[in-house]
Amino acid sequence: MASITDSADEQNRPSLQGKFNRWTWLLLPALLFLAIFFIYPLFEILQRSVTEPTLGISNFVEFFQSPVFSAVLFNTLKMSFYVMFFCLLIGYPYAYLMNHSSRRVAGLLLIAVLIPFWSSILVRTYAWTVLLQRTGVVNSMLIGIGIIEKPLKLLRNFPGIVIGMTHILLPFMVLPIYSVMQRIDKDFVTAAESLGARPFRAFREIYLPLSLPGVYAGSLLVFVVALGYYITPALLGSPRETMMGAMVVQQVQQVLDWGMGSALGVVLLITTLVILGVVGRIVNINEVLGGSGGPE
Amino acid sequence: MSNSMTNNRSSISPAPVKIQELAKHYGAIKANDNVNLDIEGGEFMTLLGPSGSGKTTTLKMVAGFVEPTSGSVMIDNKVVTEPPHKRDIGMVFQNYALFPHMTAAQNVAFPLRMRSVPTQERDERVKNALAMVDLADRMDQLPRQLSGGQQQRVALARALVFEPRVVLMDEPLGALDKKLRENLQLQIRAIQQDLDITMIYVTHDQEEALVMSDRIAVFNNGKIVQVGTGEALYERPETRFVADFIGESNIFGGRLDADGSHLKSGDLSLAVPATMIASSTPAALVVRPERMRLNRLGTDLQGSNSLEAKVKDIIYLGSERKYELEHANGTVLIARHQVGRSNITPEIGENILVSWKIEHGVVVTDEG
Ligand SMILES: Nc1ncnc2c1ncn2[C@@H]1O[C@H](COP(=O)(O)OP(=O)(O)OP(=O)(O)O)[C@@H](O)[C@H]1O
Ligand SMILES: [Mg+2]
Asked: What is the tally of structural domains in chain B?
């Protein structure tokens, strides 16, 4: 993929290596924090998944043999994929619009997409339950304009989860795409048109390929974040749409099976890593996540 | 440099461009105001002017990227109203605008693909175009793997390969260092003549304009103030702005006296050649530095204006010497002479008589 990051960025970055020894101790608190609150619990979970209730991989064997657990994993992947798809469907044109409107409008659009970031997940999710219920705004509106006759069931099912999750994760799609689009020189499209490309052709051949790093980054973020989401699927779905996150909670809080709960967490983690690994083979992750591209 | 492209287009005669009363207003800002310009087919026309004078705006209206507030553009004697992609105009941008995800060859092939040129012919023409700019061996490199000058030449090849009716260039050499710029100026000029293309070229570098152009249109505040060959603009500027912008000048601002034979500038009264400029309007006398002669005090000078002045500074410029002179009333004058060609060689601090023949002065209007 073409790197459109400025190579000057690379030169401006101070070299860490030279100063490593002298400043290492400054990193200590951060490292300690990571060790205590991140690496230790992770270790704990890995350990419990293979030691409780008995030493061995029995939890994982059970996971893959049980139709329930596999279905949950499949459901979670499916949900994440749908959420990613709809986020992209809405997010790409949204970012494009932001990048092609006046500063004022772009600012308003940015605020609109960031509002979910600024309000509590619980509040937002409950707001969706109000909007999506049988007598809610969405159904009344759809009936009002005559698209449907009877209210749709949008709550406590798969579509409900996807709608709520798409809304909540949209910023993760819009922001990376927008930031990549901002770095695309407007003259590229102008040049393409002067060379004989119709506006849509110029978009397809020039603008779209150059914005792909943002698309990859956004999709990856949304997909990975969606995999581990707990509250929204729990509130907008029903037991039939139990996701991995909710399953972990169930195992730990209701069944009190820490071993199985930990194993579920490990499976989720490995799934995420595998996806990152696969995508990383196709595109340069560093570049996708906003760093500068690797050397040629 | 190869002539291979010349053969393809020998039958096509280059298109004239006529810009008529073109205006572009952004609210109160008049980016362009009543621009008129007649460009012959095959002519190299340079739009020259300071930053913000409206050069790019004119170019964009010709290309179709900016809708004129009023006025029209005619190419090949037809008014153009088509969208940009149908205008068949080659364009080179200041930052080249090479597509970063395409190789040099793919960039050059782009306009041909848009025109559905068959693959075989396309490859042939891409090769020829890149050979023309001496980049045949860089076909498969991405823009970021090329130097600034090489990118520039790829952009040039891309703008020429589809044999456009007109080529527009907006400060295409602005980002390059002096040496490379001079090299490319000659190369672009040679290709333009070789292919017999109508060229509209934007720059704010007057030297570049003088080197490359058949004619130059000088812009100021959204208007064209004068059009002419480099020589005409230099020797016969019509306004103070042009005299000031092109080359170095000694300029005396003031008013002509009633019979138009003298210009009153402060406490000076300088003889001027016959002029059409009305005596009531503000005017200025322009004398180029190389027209200034230096004489010993007391020299009798017939048919010349002369002023006593003190030598403030002497600057050696290799083959030339530049004298900074100051008249008693504070007016600073500049004289330039080829080394060994001046009649006297004064020292700094010396008082001398600076003079110029009356016919070497040019009277210009002092507005716009
Ligand atoms: N889209 C726009 N909106 C408002 N004002 C504009 C716009 N485009 C250009 N202008 C104004 O019009 C004037 C002419 O601009 P233009 O870009 O044509 O100048 P230029 O001669 O090309 O200058 P430069 O040498 O700096 O490129 C400037 O004052 C500029 O600020
Ligand atoms: Mg400009």
From this structure: 2
